Structures are given as structure tokens and as C-alpha cells.
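Hi D.,

Good news: the full-assembly prediction came through. Inputs first.
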Amino acid sequence: GAVVSQHPSRVICKSGTSVKIECRSLDFQATTMFWYRQFPKKSLMLMATSNEGSKATYEQGVEKDKFLINHASLTLSTLTVTSAHPEDSSFYICSARGGDSPLHFGNGTRLTVT
Amino acid sequence: EDQVTQSPEALRLQEGESSSLNCSYTVSGLRGLFWYRQDPGKGPEFLFTLYSAGEEKEKERLKATLTKKESFLHITAPKPEDSATYLCAVRSTGNQFYFGTGTSLTVIP
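Then the structure:
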């Protein structure tokens, strides 16, 4: 089946620093990738949608200057949390889709900002 | 308004006690309904896609069904390893995905 690899799985950083999270589709070309944030015992909250080679589309209330998304190739998208603060601590998940296929998810990144 | 509602929010079953999870949806044109399993600290794992009313899919102890308004995930004789959160999502003709809030299933040995 389709595999999406997300790295790192856990990261701890100091307040004010930036963190980059990678999302790779390993065995298919992902025309569209999605980034989510998930709070404890809550469902996925879509942050942004990215299509290869174009600018990401951010959901309402998501700061595009804080959460930088780059979808440079059909197999890689990155999310950079800039100038992270403790309130950015969360579980971030990416998903990828090629054509009409279902969404396939990465295993998430637990970000802790101290 | 397009939306997905899952019930119950949480479900506790004895091992072997069959039950069903519900996913009700309203969407402007359905291009697919998806079921996922999510374990704590992990990303959702794809289970099934259903495209049209009357369609059914099965995998081990799980069976998903679809009508024009809802989908059911039937769990037959569940085992403790089936404990997880089950998420439902729909894709609209506008290519938007809408997720439910999930059902947290606990199967007690």
C-alpha cells in the first residue's frame, strides 16, 4: 500500500527557534499534500493544502508566515514552524494523495516547545 | 453545510461483543467516504473507501457499509487489538475532505 513517511517523529525545541518537518510519499507521486494539527482526543484540524510547484492554500486562522509550507517535488512537502512558542506545541500530521486515491497519512510529529 | 458526524464518541466493548460505529454526512456531491484507524501517537491508517450507496467492504473483523446519508463500520467479535480511534472522512465533488471527530473504541479482554 501507499506509504507516507514523516520525519521527525518527535522534536523538542526552545522558544523562538524554527523547526522543519518533512513529509515524503515513498511509493507514489503526491500531487497534493495536506498538513494537519491534532489536539489531544480531538480530530484533525486542516492547516493547509499544498500542490506541487505552487503556493500552499492556508485555512482560515492559520498564519502563513508562521507555518511555512513548501511542496518542492511530487514526493516531498515540508512544514516549517517559525519562531516557535509553547502554544505551538502539538501533534502535526501530513497526508498525501495522488490523483483520485485516498489520503494516506504520515505517522505524525510531536512538537514540544519549551 | 458540508459536515461529518460520528457516533458514539466513545465505545467500550467486551471482547467478542459485536457492535457498529456510525458516520453521518452531508456533502455537496460525494466522491468517496473513507474509514481510518488511528492509534495513539500515530497517524491515521487507511481502512476502506466507499463510493456509492449499497457498497460494502470487508477486512478481517471490520465491515463498512454506505447509504446516501451515513456509513456504518461493523465490528464483529472484536479483540483488544481492535482498540483505537476510528475516523470517518468524506470527499466532496469540490475535492474538499471533511473529517469526523472519531469514535474511540476500547475492547476489554
